[in-house]
Each structure stands twice: as structure tokens, then as C-alpha cells.
Amino acid sequence: MTADVADDTNIEEGRKLFSGPCDFVLGITDLAQLPPADLPEIAFVGRSNVGKSSLMNALTGRKALARVSHTPGRTQQLNFFDLGGVCHLVDMPGYGYAKVSKQQRKAWDALIFDYLKGRPNLRTVFVLIDSRHGVKDSDGHVFDLLDAAAVNYRIVLTKADKARPGALAETIAETETALKKHPAAFPSVMTTSAHEDEGIAELRSTVRLCAL
Known about the structure:
seven-stranded mixed sheet; 6 helices
């Protein structure tokens, strides 16, 4: 089988998976509320207003799987979705919002780090970065948390359609250079646009492969 055929097959299998049911399971603010660890978990996290909700909606072909809001920091809990009985998608709280207090940030860090380091069925975390802005200090903080928890993660650049002409390639290069310092990071990045459906099929395929 050639690489092209294999890629086409993976993309089609990803499309089939995400065209099936994807149901909300529960939202938690305390690890005692975690569902049984009987399915692989694929988590998504990013700065507030990075486009996480729009991306998750685009992946599943739904308009309201993850509620889209113009208010930064709306997601304040870990939200679990059952993707066709194959895996759980985990929508994690946004970070980097300036109006969040130090106490709230500490609570977020505690919840997230305890989840990351203690969840044996967590396969990977997709960290979303706005392609217009690149890696920020708060993103680096999350990279460090993931490195410390020894959880592998992949970077997904969002809103690629809104990046300045010629700037996207520079952001990709800068991001991949930054990732060389982080042992748990996948070395290359993915680019997406929920609005233009760019990179969505490839991301679906990657999620499926991570869940196998």
C-alpha cells in the first residue's frame, strides 16, 4: 500500500468517525467526578478565544457541540464528549485571560496538572495556538505542565485563514523551533481554519489514529 493510499484511507476513516454520534457526557470541576477510564481520551486546550469551540464544532460537523462565545474564559470545566464509543474528546478550560485572578489560575493549574499526570487513558493533548499570534508565555506555561506530566502533545495552529500573507510559514517555523525545547511535544505542527475547513480532515484522521 502506498503512502498516498494509506493517507486517503486514514482520512476517510477519520471522516466516518466524526460523522457519527458525538454526545456530551459530563462536565467536571473536581477530579472526583471523572468518568471511568474505560475509553481513550483526546484533549483540546488553548488560550481563551483561540477558536477551540469553533474547531471542535468543525471537527464534528456540528454547530453547537462546544458553545462558541466571544467572552474569553467561558469554558471553566473539563467537558467530556463520547465520540462514537471510540474515545472521549475532552474540552479543557481556556487559559491566558488577563482578568483571571491568580487564585483562579492556581486552581486551573491544579485541576489540569492533576488530570494530566493521573489519567492513564489520556492519549494526547492538542494545544491550540492562534496562527496570528504564535506562542505566548501562557502557552509555554502549558507546554511546561505537559512536559512535567510526561503527556505527549501536538500543536494545532488555528485561524490560518486570518494570518497575514506570508506570516503563517514564519509562525510555523518559530513554533517548531520552540518545540525543540519541549521533550513531550510532537515536533511538527498542524494548521487549521474552522471557517475555511482547512486542515480539518487531517486533524480528524490524526485524532482517530491517536485514539487507536
